[in-house]
Each structure stands twice: as structure tokens, then as C-alpha cells.
Amino acid sequence: MSPPSAVTGNGFHIDDDGKSNDCKHSNECICVSSSTLLSLRSFCRSIIELVPSKEHKKLWRIITASVKGFTVGFGLKGGLGFFAILARLTRKKSQRKEIVVTNGEVIVTALKETLRYGLFLGTFAGTFVSMDELIGAIGGHRRTAKWRALLAGALAGPSMLLTGLETQHTSLAIYILMRASVLASRCGIKSKRFGTICKPLTWKHGDIFLMCLSSSQILSAYILKQESLPSSYKSFLNKHGGKDMAILQGIKDIASGKAFSNLGAVEKYYKTMGVDMKLDPNMKVPCSIVHGNQSCTGHIFSFLLQAYRRALPVYLPVYLIPALIVHRQGLLKRPFSILAKGLFGTGRSSLFLSVYCTSAWMWTCFVFRLFNRCNIPLVAMGTFPTGLALAIEKKSRRMEISLYCLARAIESFFTCLADEGYLPQSRKIKRADVVVFSLSTAIIMHCYAEEREVFRSKYLNVLDWVFGVPPPSCESPPCKDT
Fold this sequence. Notes:
Layout: H1 34-50, H2 56-90, H3 103-139, H4 141-144, H5 148-156, H6 170-190, H7 206-224, H8 231-241, H9 245-255, H10 263-272, H11 287-291, H12 296-325, H13 330-333, H14 335-371, H15 376-383, H16 395-419, H17 432-450, H18 457-467
Subcellular location: Endomembrane system
Family: Belongs to the TMEM135 family.
Membrane topology: Multi-pass membrane protein
């Protein structure tokens, strides 16, 4: 789903006809008028006129890729930001635990982030196409065909810096690396040389295993060491984990073998919920901390209903934004079937997330009661089978989700190692995320140019729309260079 046609308050305000409404008394307000768009169009034409006519096609490809890249970045980040702001505005004041910034400041920040991501993807697309055309012009399309996209992808990687010179994007870099690894493994599977080595990667339920492995690290960190998780992901887990911080601290104390530091805070929390109870400081199993006076079974069903209501707003933009980008042509021909499919996907994915969060508490309760104790290894053991909830999701989405979670699990794992002093030198590495991202985009763009069959069609359609279908290794008529 794309952002709405009008966003007011320190931001864009554009009607469907392309004319901007009046922007009110704000230095940060951006007014876009039809005359501005015409001026931009004239500027682009004047640039093209300065270039020899035989190079017009190449220059137009660069400009088009930049604009489309900006559109994708702006649309995705803007859509997600819009729903985040909408959720904040609809949330009751009593539910806001931290009132640090005003709604206006949040809107301005979201707009800035949206513009940054638009510039990031626009610059990445423009840089890649520019380098692709430049290398081909200098070295010849035929001679450089096997490595041109690899180098161009690597050179475009530093465009990540446009999202903020001081902002680390370790999670994004690791996730893109995971995506690149999947593409590389698919290339290896169909390769005669590496086919045998990569055969284990064809395991039917490998995605679910990766999800279980990731869940063990992520959910253990959620309970025991939240500072090892990215701030945005930590907020996501705190919301959908459905437990007050006092409860998590109580579980952490008993799992770490320490004396309880906040049983009074847990009791006070349950009292605000209408439950008056006294907790045993000598308890071995923290079930009474997790769900108060509810039974384990009763807690599972009540938590599932609450978790499903929290999950629905998460997946609406996930399904509707791509519908406008990937299925933009089909949406005009068969809008009802595409929207119905999106709503079904929203319901299915919401069920996955709610079952995932519910089963995390179900399995940990089961393991704690089975061994009649609670410690760190049992927390990791109890959170491992939580990943089985991924089976609810559509098969084509499972690997995507498992890789997303694996990237965060890897980041959390190495952060924990570094905090314990096992990786002291890792703290001194500056902007390693840009290096990893550049390496990953080099692999991805090489596969896009030379191994296109390893992409799923929907991703390939988006790449083709942004970058243009890459020219074949030898054009027709035959290339003159050798």
C-alpha cells in the first residue's frame, strides 16, 4: 500500500490531481506543485539534450532507475511510517508508557526517514545503472558481462550512508547478506561443481529449522538481554510479547539464579489489572510471574486472542503496499481478487505471529514445569520450538521470514559475545555494515544479471521495473567488442 494522497502536518500535502494544497506556517513543510514538476521535467530534458543522441537511451535508463528507486524507498518507508503514526495516534494516552516526543515531532522524523530511504534507494539504483553503463562502455559489454554487475553492485553499496552517516544498519546489512547467501546457494545447487556441497540446502523444512534456531536466540535475548537487540526490534518484541517489563525482569532474575529484585513491582502490576496476589520469593518455576493466577492453559487461550488483535495492524501494510507495487497492473483489471488475496494473507500472517508469541510462553511454561526449575539453558530450550509456528505461513514466505529473524539472531548473538569480552576487536570496526551491505549487493546484482532464474518472479519483476532488464551478454546485432 502506498502512502495516502495527502499527509498533513510538517509534510507533503498533494491532491490526487497533482496540485498541492496550502502548507501552513512550517519551515519543514515541503510543497510540491505542478509547476515544480514541470520544471523538473524541463531540467531533465535539458540535461538529455546536452548528451549525444546515441547516449540518450543510457542516460534515460539512469534517470529512470534513480526515480523508480526513490519511489520504492519512499513508498515502502512512508507506508510503514504512516501506519506506525496511525497506531500512535489511535493509541490511548494511558497506554503510552513513555511520552518523550510530541505527535508533530514524530511525523517530522518519519518524513525525514522516508526521504532518506528514498534517496538511499534512488542513489543505489542510479549508481548501479551508471556504473553498469560506464564499465560496459569502457570495457565492452561482451568482455565485462561476467563481472560488470558484480562490481557495479559493490560500488553502489555505500549509498547506504545516505540513511545517516552515524546510523548503523547492522540488521539490514546482515539481512541483505542472508538474501545474497540464499541466491548464491541456489546458484551452487544448479552448478555441477558445487551441487553436491549445496545439496543439504534443499532440505524441505530448512526454513522452519532456521526459524527455530533464530527464535531460541531472539526470544532468549528478549527475556535475558534486550540490549543485544536493535531498538526497533526490541520495541516490536515488547509490544507483541505482551508482558510488562517487571514480569520480564522477574523471569530474568530466577533464570540467572539471582535473588528477586522486583517482586513488589510484579504484584503492583497485577493489582492494576485487578488481580490481587502474593508471589513466593522461593519459587522455582516462574509461571505465577508470567500469567498471575491464571492456569497455563487458560493463559494460552486468552493471550492468543489478545496477540491476534495486536498482529493485524502489523500485516496490513506488509500485504497492501506490495500489492500496489508488484501487482500494479493487475490491480486495475482484477482489484477484488487481489485485495481479497491480500486480506486473506493478512489474516493468515496475523495468525502466525499471534501463535508464535503465544507458543513462546506455552513452551517455556511446559519446559519449566517439566524440569521443575528455570535457568538460562531451559529458556533457550523452551524458545526453540516456538519457530514451529512458521508452518502456518505460506511456503513462499517462510524463508523470507526465517532469514529476517536469522539476521537479527546473528546480530544479537555476536553482540552478546562482544559484551562478554569474547570479541573485543569487533567494537573498533567502523561502518562494517556498509562493507557487508556492499558485498551482499554485489552478489545480488551479479545474480540478477547472470543468474536470473534463481530469483522468484515477483522479485525479478520489481528489479526489472527499477533497473531495466539487463542487456544480454552479446547484443543483436553481434557485439563489435571482443
